[in-house]
Amino acid sequence: MATNLHMLIIPLMCPGHLIPMVDMAKLLAQQSVTVTIVITPRNAERYGSVLDRAIASGLPIHIFQLRFPTTENGLPNGCESIDDLPTFSLAKNFYGASAMLQKPLEDGFNELKPRPSCIISDKHLSWTADVAEKFQLPWVIFDGMSCFTQLATHNLCVSKVHEHMAESEPFVLPGLPDKITMTKSQLPLLFNSGNSARGKELNSIREKIRATELGAYGIIINSFEELEKRYIDEYRKIKQGRVWCIGPFSNSNKNDLDKAQRGSNEPINNHYCLKWLDSQHKSSVIYACLGSLTRLTPPQFIELALGLEDSKIPFILVVRGGSRTDEIEKWLVEDGYENRLKGRGVLVRGWAPQVLILSHSAVGAFLTHCGRALGLSHKQKMAMKCVQDRYMIYNYCWDNKREHSKTPE
């Protein structure tokens, strides 16, 4: 049934944020809602294949391209996504460049037909609240994590219980349906940014984002009722019911081509790791990918790689070290790591077709940047112990913001 609704979607230019919002655009358009997604030229090229196919299928999706002001903000030319940053010390510059999209968006707003009914933006783009206010539209924010995260964050901000705790002192997260114990050092940087100038600078950005998002009309979360119903119920009480969990957004990709190009326009239908998975037993493979932004130091990568090797279980490991990738590749050659795998392990460089990998019947465990392995049987959990034993020292290192110059034995 046709509607007069028109949603203006404004994502943060970062794979973990933009990809689900592209998926959300497709989900909304499948309900006959007109959708316009704001995107920059480089990202339009990167995600354009999926969007173009959706448009060609008849879905009412429009693309509104805006030039990303890189050089004006001290960013390399073509750096239009957070994962393009050569160093995260330029994160402030990137957020500054994102905020400069406000004026060209407002200048082109009247070109959008029909007039947008509301704005759905990533919660990290606080300037979009001003756009919504200027054009008198409801402002709805998007969060890609969970109601658990939102509820825990809200309760900590209100109670401030963590402020009276030592770094390693356990305490119970307040106001949750379950008893969950953490230490201050394990909290997100919003609550534990440290005393460095960069930490304080980034925390001021996070505090501004937090303060602005409290004024949103509502929030869309990439979650679903069966996953965390009690947390959804509690969070809806705080938000007067305006919490919509319409995930998982990846379900909007119905064919293998859309799944393969989710986050990349590269032709990877015949990706070698997928062919290798076809030769493995059901639920036998560990998939280790720490996200598009996580950049392991060489010692961290070495420990993870050796832990996977010691597990004696088939695995796929995504190699991503940012500016330190050359050092990691040098170790791989000198150590003879790939040669020792002999078909039991696969290294993936560049973008991995993650949805296709995770949906493959051979994958039985997912090790990701939260240090979690999802959906494991008891046997698989025991097999993962060697990986976790090697990996836990670096979880400890990251949590406590310490650096180790020597790889532990």
Automatic annotation (TrEMBL):
Arranged from A to Z, the UniProt key words for this protein are: Glycosyltransferase, Transferase
A single GO BP term for this record reads:
glucan metabolic process
Alphabetized GO MF terms: UDP-glucosyltransferase activity; xyloglucan:xyloglucosyl transferase activity
**Per its UniProt record, what InterPro entries does this chain match?**
UDP_glucos_trans (IPR002213), XET_C (IPR010713)
Leader sequence segment:
none
Where exactly are the transmembrane stretches of this chain? Answer: none
Could you state one GO cellular component term attached to this entry?
A: apoplast
Where does the Xyloglucan endo-transglycosylase C-terminal domain lie?
Answer: 375-408
Source taxon at top rank: Eukaryota
**Which family is this protein grouped under?**
Belongs to the UDP-glycosyltransferase family.
- Tell me the protein's name: UDP-glucuronosyl/UDP-glucosyltransferase
**Taxonomic lineage of this organism?**
Eukaryota, Viridiplantae, Streptophyta, Embryophyta, Tracheophyta
